[in-house]
Amino acid sequence: MSEKRKSQFGTPSWAQVREKMELRKEKRLNNKRKREEEEKKKLEENNSNNNVSNNENKENNDNKEGKIEKEEKVEGKEEEKKEKLLPRRKVALLVAYSGEGYQGLQKNPGAKTIEDDLIDAFIKTGCIHSGNQGDDFFSKVSWSRAARTDKGVSAVGNVIALKMMTDPEETLVERINANLPPAIRILKFYRTLNGFHAKNAADSRVYEYLIPTSALVPILENNTPSFSPERLEKVRTILKLFEGTHNFWNYTVSQKFEDSDSLRFMKSIQCGEPFVVEGTEFVKVTIHGASFMYNQIRKMMAMVMIVMRHSAPLNLILNSFSKRSCPLIIAPGEFLLLDKIQFNGYNRKLGKVNPDREAILPDAFGMEKQREEFKHSCIYPNAVKMEKDQDIMGIFIRSKVDHFKPVIDGVERDIYEWFKENRELYPDVKEALEKKPKGSYRKGNSNNKDAEIPANPTGTNKIAESIQGVVEAAIGLESILGNGNEDSKQIPEKIVDAAFQKS
């Protein structure tokens, strides 16, 4: 059968088979080529991806190495800083400042204070690391202040203690003052014992209050040209009535007559001769006491002005120590000055423990001169300027002193009837003037936030170490002679009072 015939009956011819085989072979070759091309593309893509990842890894490695180097550099710098920060030493700084324009000494959020400027200066000088700032800043640097002065109150002998970097010590004061405003000056620094606390170590405080003599002239004699010697002696007599131990509960706030810490011991209160600053005549009242309550000095000065302006009886002072309540007015704080703070007990301890270190003596050679220079160059002129520009004391005298209305036990009284009543209640002023100031051994504290300081834990003063043996002997004597006898219970207090007077 021919090929043509076979194809007619459905059987493929050899030519057709051969053609199909060639087509299949060509198709396989084409598929193979496609697979090879795809594989080649995949390889190329993989290679490119690997290169990118390798570059990224390289960059990452480079970045890591750079970061490590930077961290090492930062750590090195921090270590260098730490080396520079050490050592920190406990020091006491004798500080002078004018209170004009400040809301007080103590740091207070939202208010301009002396401590804000001091801290900024310490950080700029490198005495304190900026990393110490925060809520616990004062505890980190062991900060303490001997006096917490209020708005407008100045100082030439306040003391602040803290831990700071002092090297080089020879230029410490100059370096700090270079970063302080002219109204604040560090006069001297002292290396102290590590446990030194400025407030607790203070034995007594001395304040000054400047009174324009015009505020001490009786109302009916305002046209008198000068402050006579007779008036000066009367002021001194009034001030003498405040000396000794009295109940000053009427001279502060939130105190009761029964509170033990209302008793305060005033060692001495003196009035100097009149002096003139830029045409204004002043007298300077110096108050030396163991401790003071909030606003106590300013209320005492207001009482002096009331007595002088109204020619009031001196009995007024004596009756103000009684149980009868009599809210008193407060004299301006701009004329109050913290003169110095005494650390007699600490100095004695320092002499025994580390005699090579310098005692804190604000009256030492050179220190008194610096303090007086600051008073006459900064504080006194500022007080006169404020009085001339703002008439602070004049407004106080005209509005508060001249129109003072006594409120006795909650009842407003006529001022002249009050004067008459005081003469009858305490007639013997002469007897009070002849008494010598006497201290009292008691415990107490105070809520001082003005220029005055809270009471020491021992009340009238920290009993000096030199009389501790006397105190212990007195207590022992009580135990021997005691057995419930009231007279024997007073023996320790009498002995301590006598020792205090001698010290």
Structural write-up:
The structure is a single chain. With 503 residues, the protein is α+β, with helices and mostly antiparallel strands. The protein is built from 17 helices and twelve strands. The chain has helices at 3-8, 14-85, 114-125, 137-140, 172-177, 198-201, 229-240, 296-309, 315-319, 344-353, 367-390, 392-401, 415-425, 429-434, 468-481, 486-489, 491-502, and strands at 89-97, 144-145, 154-164, 184-191, 204-212, 244-247, 263-271, 275-277, 280-289, 336-342, 407-408, 411-412. The strands form two sheets. Strands 1, 2, 3, 4, 5, 6, 7, 8, 9 and 10 form a ten-stranded mixed β-sheet that branches. A hairpin with an 8-residue loop joins strand 2 and strand 3 (154-164). Helix 15 runs antiparallel to helix 17 (491-502). Mean pLDDT is 79; it is low at 440-503.
Overview in brief:
With 503 residues, the protein is of the alpha+beta class. The protein contains 17 helices and 12 strands.
Helix content: 40-55%
Rg calculated over all Cα atoms: 42 Å
Number of helices: 17
Strand-and-helix sequence, N→C? HHEHHEEHEHEHEEEEHHEHHHEEHHHHH
Oligomer: single chain
How many beta strands in the DSSP annotation? 12
What is the distance, rounded to the nearest whole angstrom, between the alpha carbons of the first and last residues? 156 Å
How much of the sequence lies in strands comes to 15-25%
| Largest sheet properties | 10 strands, mixed
- What value does the average pLDDT take? 79
Contiguous runs where pLDDT drops below 50 for at least 5 residues: 440-503
User: Structural class given helices, strands, pairing?
Assistant: alpha+beta
Shape: elongated
